[in-house]
Design goal:
Helix content: 25-40%
CATH topology: Spore Coat Polysaccharide Biosynthesis Protein SpsA, Chain A
Number of domains: 1
Number of helices: 9
Strand content: 15-25%
Largest sheet: 9 strands, mixed
Oligomer: single chain
CATH superfamily: Spore Coat Polysaccharide Biosynthesis Protein SpsA, Chain A
Length: 276
């Protein structure tokens, strides 16, 4: 054990199956403008993969894990998101979505969150087992892929053993041990500290920073355990090529019963569904 790991304050709170189910927060305020015409009429979280929106996939994933106390932070076309969440999740509107980032959306949920907390980025499509592995951990943890983390846009992670040392898009290649998947699980105590760090960073003018800034600050004090999911299918959808890969490769591998001939909803169909 090196000095960095030894300094970590590992929470005594056990995150086991005997604990109450955590709450879940989905960060979905952004537009996803790099997807171009796909997000002119509705936000990225309502993009269709396998005939269902990304948000619907995530809500179903959480429900399958026994997590029903869910909050979605919306922004761009927030009313459309709220309609999809009706009866399934609480919705908080981020009216400053165009001038802020995921850190600010996280901070807006500080009064809603009361216990253990799963945080998910809305643009991630993943195998159910990614979440299952995360929830099996006995301390605060995050999913990462050790086979990824080379691209400029990747949220890279550096580990000391299994413990997070750094999380940033700007890590040098020599420091990178993988890419953050965009699913994290915090104990109640760590979640409170995460919100505290987010508030401090925003107070210093960092409202346009990624949530990773608060995670990085938390990791300097408490142990955040990395859960490697390199053997499971997942994708973060930022560009058109990601969307096509999600539809053609990732979704069929996640849902083996998906029929190749299933009708894919076109943008005009989605507009009728969500923009009424």
């Amino acid at each position: 054990m090196d000095d960095f790991t030894a300094r970590k304050n590992i929470s005594n709170v056990s995150l086991t199956n005997s604990s109450p189910a955590p709450q879940a927060l989905i960060l979905a305020a952004g537009r996803g403008q790099r997807l171009g015409a796909h997000v002119e009429q509705f936000p990225k979280c309502l993009l269709q993969v396998g005939g269902r929106s990304l948000l619907d996939h995530q809500l179903s994933m959480l429900a399958a894990a026994g997590i029903h106390d869910v909050c979605v932070v919306a922004g761009y076309h927030h009313n459309a998101v709220a309609r999809v969440c009706l009866g399934r999740a609480h919705v908080i509107n981020n009216p400053k979505w165009a001038e802020t980032n995921s850190l600010y959306s996280l901070w807006l949920s500080r009064h809603w969150a009361t216990g253990q907390l799963v945080v998910m980025n809305c643009d991630v499509l993943a195998d159910q087992r990614v979440l299952s592995r995360l929830l099996e951990n006995t301390s605060s943890s995050f999913a990462f892929d050790s086979n990824s983390g080379k691209d400029e846009e990747h949220m890279k992670i550096e580990l000391s053993g299994r413990i997070l040392r750094s999380m940033s898009k700007t890590l040098h290649a020599s420091q990178v041990h993988g890419e953050n998947v965009g699913m994290l699980h915090f104990s109640a105590a760590d979640a409170r500290e995460l919100f505290s760090h987010a508030g401090a960073i925003i107070g210093d003018g960092g409202k346009n920073m990624w949530m990773a800034a608060a995670v990085q600050a938390l990791a300097r004090e408490n142990a955040l355990v990395g859960v490697d999911v390199r053997d499971l299918s997942w994708i973060e959808i930022d560009y058109q090529k990601d969307l096509e890969h999600a539809r053609q490769r990732i979704w069929p591998s996640i849902e083996p019963d998906n029929r190749p001939g299933q009708k894919r909803l076109e943008s005009r169909d989605v507009q009728r569904l969500y923009m009424q």
